[in-house]
Every structure is written in structure tokens, then in C-alpha cells.
Amino acid sequence: xxxxxxxxxxxxxxLVALSVLTQAPSARACMICDQDKVAATYDFAxxxxxxxxxxxxxxxxxxxPVKPDDPALARRLRSALGRVRGVDAGTVxxxxxxxxxxxxxxxxxxxxxxxxxxxRAALRPAKLGLRPIDSPPLPAPQRALRRTSGRRx
Length: 153
Hints:
Elements: H1 3-23, H2 31-41, H3 44-52, E1 56-63, H4 71-82, E2 93-96, E3 99-105, H5 112-123, E4 129-133, E5 147-148, E6 151-152
Antiparallel strand pairs: 1-3, 1-4, 2-3, 5-6
């Protein structure tokens, strides 16, 4: 192989490495990763009940040092988030792998800005942060259909 061929390979390899390194710090969370976090904390019963009551859902990525095998941390997070003003009782869901939370909340009792600030404050003692994830659309409340002799009523 000629000296020019060796130099060309090195230049190409260097440019590829430089491209990867310069893009990595600015990389944002991918939608697949966010979908995994939503799926890990999605509870159809909670989402359906929130929709029926015209409440909202918060799905979020937990950022910071989370050990996937720390059930005590999961309990502490559920307890702390359950005490946040506006959060519907019993709706907090926590996943440590992937690190995520979800909860239903009442927009009459608090604003989204106040809720996010309170959730972040509840996570702070554990040295954790929150990145809200755009939530999937809530299902429309369904009316039960009755059948009478083969006809819908």
C-alpha cells in the first residue's frame, strides 16, 4: 500500500472519530428511549381513570444516580411524589430500570409549572432530577355499550 493510501485511511478514520465525538455531547434523548421510560411506568388503569376525571398525566425521565436494584429508593420516591400537591393518590409509578416516573395530577389543584417544581423538589433529596417526557394522548372515556337482542341500545 502506498503512503498516500495509508494517509487517506487515517484521514477518513480521523474524520469519522471527530464527527462522532463532536455530536455526542449535544445528543438528545432518543424517542425510543423515552418510549421505554413511558412504557415502564404506564398503567392503563391510572391513565384511564385520569382521563375520566379530566386529570392529566406526567411521565418523566429520572436523571441522576439510580441503582436498578434499590427497592428502598423506589419506595422513597413513591412516597415523596405521592405527597406532592395535586398528585392523585395511589397513581405514582416508579421504574428504576429505565429510571422513570409517572403520575396522575389534578389541574384544578395545581398548575403544570408548580407541579414540575414540586416534583423536582421531591426528587432533590435523593440527588435526582426530572426531565418531563411528552405524554402520550389519554384515551377518551368509553361508554359501556349494552346489547339487547342483538341491537345496540
